Structure formats: structure tokens, C-alpha cells
Amino acid sequence: MARWKFGARAVWAVLALCAGLVAEGAVAQVRIKDIATFEGVRENQLVGYGLVVGLNGTGDSLRNSPFTEKSIEGMLERLGVGNLSDDNIRTQNTAAVMVTAMLPPFARRGSTIDVVVSSLGDASSLRGGTLIVTPLSGADGEVYAVAQGPIAVAGYAAQGLNASIVEGVPTVARIENGATVENEIGFELDSLRSIRIALRDPDFTTAVRVADAINRALGGNTARALDPSTVEVEPYGKTDLMGAMAAIERLEVEPDVRAKVVIDARSGTIVMGGNVRIDEVAVSQGGLTVMVREEIQVSQPEPISIGETVVVPQTTVEVTEQPARFAILDGGVSLQRLVDGLNAIGVGATETISILQAIKAAGALHADMEII
């Protein structure tokens, strides 16, 4: 427990608060499916280049976006309009866009997926537009889906002669179920001889606990931790891998996490884990406030005299210093109790962040500190 050696009544109130705090409980049991994934069962990124038409004069200006003009010419030639290379296209109702999507695992031919449409040129808004047929390719260059349809924009933009307003991002839109899967990614679970589980947050202790939980559920030494992020499972006598994977992902384990403190200096937000501890340390915090006040006075010449009006600035400087206060903390005190005590005596978020950084620099804070 912390011993605050201030001598003020407010400090004893802090002691009572700290003494009444409930000790941190154990980490909650979580399912394996919430902290890990099965190796090979993952999404794949798709990307494509297309055109959005039907915009109300908010599309690309073809002078600044020559690739949009070339794309319009190519599209019209494929549709049998003819050669337009010698003609000047002046439309402002078309925008070049990049279309992205995530192909989920085991997606079958004919199923639909959502797509995101993002402007590539200088279009001011995609509202009201329609995406023309756009093939979506994977990293291997193969086409796996085709997107088309009216787009939905969350933001808006309005502009007048002397003022404009923009809400959200009107140059990014979505199409729900806007792409149809045309090609499948071959992956057969029955061909696997073992199952590999990948932890989202690699940790030696968590990997061992996952392997132990699987061994208790399936029996024998079916699971073993290969490294901090991978657990391999070989279900003996299990021909139904789907059943084994379903049984494994429902198992509950207690993950082990590193002690970490995350500080957002801009908003004054402090997030800490329950395993954060500090050694015995003395903390002193004082504040210095400097106030500068500027007053402008005007000095005028006497009547019926030769002179000039002079502006004379008057500056007043006031310095207020808060008395520094010491706090001595026993070793093993949790960081949560330290922050609660500092809050109880009126220390703000900015001062608390400075104190935590100083304790870390002194080597008394046993946790990773990340400032974002």
C-alpha cells in the first residue's frame, strides 16, 4: 500500500481510497477463436481500376486527370462507339477510381462481397455515381471478382461563390454486395495432416496454455507450441478436421499479456494494463504559472502644442508557483493506485503523464510505455 507523506487531510483521504481498492483480479478466460486464427484460413486483398459515371458535374477535370480521359476513350471504343482520339472530351460527370475488396476464405463462385470505391483524380464528390464493370484482381494477377453498381457516399460537399462546406469524405464510397465472386481460391481442409493455430499477439506463456488446453480436451499430446505465435495440433484418430477445429476454437484459456502503458499526450488519455508495477520511488510535483498581461495606453500632447500621439504599452508579469509535494511509494504498488491517488489530490492528466514518464526514466516503472 502507498504511504503518502504529505501531512494534509486530503492525503489521508487518498490513503483510505487506496486501502479500499479491490485487488486486481485474474485475467478473464477467453475463447481460442478470439485470440488466434487457423493458419491458411484468411482473407485475400483484391484491387481494380474503374470508372464512376453519372456524377452531377463533380467528376474529374480531364485537363488535370489525363488518365480519366484515356479510360473513357478505351471504354467507349470497347462498346463500339468508335475512335475518339481526335475528339476532345469535356465531360465532368466521370471519375477514375480504385476499387478494393476483401475476398473472405472459402468464398464460392456466385457469392457477393462488399467493395470500397476511392477517387483517383480530382473529383470533388462521388455522390450519385454508378461504378462501371470493374475486374478485381489478387496479388497473383488473377481476376477473382467483378464489381459494378450504384455507390453510397457517407459524406457530402456543398459549395457556393464565396463559401463551401465538406462533411466526411465524399470521394470515398461503398457498394454493399457490389462484387460477384467469379473465381475461387482452392483450399481443402481434408488435405491437411495437422492444424496450425496462429496467435494474434505472440506470447510464450499463452502459446503453452493453448497447447495444454487442447491436450486436456482432445487427449494425449496432440498439441505442441512451436514458437510464441504458433501451436500445431495433430488430432490422432480424427478424420473430421472441421469438427476438431470447431472443438478447439470453443476452448477457453487465460491469455498472458505484457505490462504496458499507452499514453495519448494530445488528449491526456492514459491506458494501462493490470500487470503494471512500480518499485519504491519518491515523487515530487510542482507547478509554475506565468501570466503576462499587455495593456495599451495612449499619450497625447498638451493642447495648443507641437507633439505627436504616442502609444505606450504597459506590461504586467505575474508568477505563481505551487508548492512541491513529495509522495513515497512502496515497491510493488500498482500503477492504477498511483494514478487514483494523484487524481484524488487534484493532479491533472498532463501532470500525471509527466510523472509517469519521469518514473519510467528512473527505472522504477516495470512496463512498456508507448506514446501515441
Summary, kept brief:
With 372 residues, this protein is α+β, with helices and mostly antiparallel strands.
Strand order of the largest sheet: 3-4-5-11-7-6
Number of DSSP strands? 25
- The number of helical runs is 7
Task: Name the poorly predicted regions.
Answer: 1-26
Q: Considering DSSP H and I runs of 4 or more, what fraction of the residues is helical?
A: 10-25%
- Integer count of domains: 3
The whole-number mean of residue pLDDT values reads 78
Outline the biggest β-sheet.
6 strands, antiparallel, barrel
Strand content: 35-45%
- Helix/sheet category: alpha+beta
Overall geometry = flat
First-last Cα distance = 31 Å
Structural Rg = 33 Å
GO molecular function: structural molecule activity
Subcellular location: Bacterial flagellum basal body
Function: Assembles around the rod to form the L-ring and probably protects the motor/basal body from shearing forces during rotation.
Signal peptide: 1-28
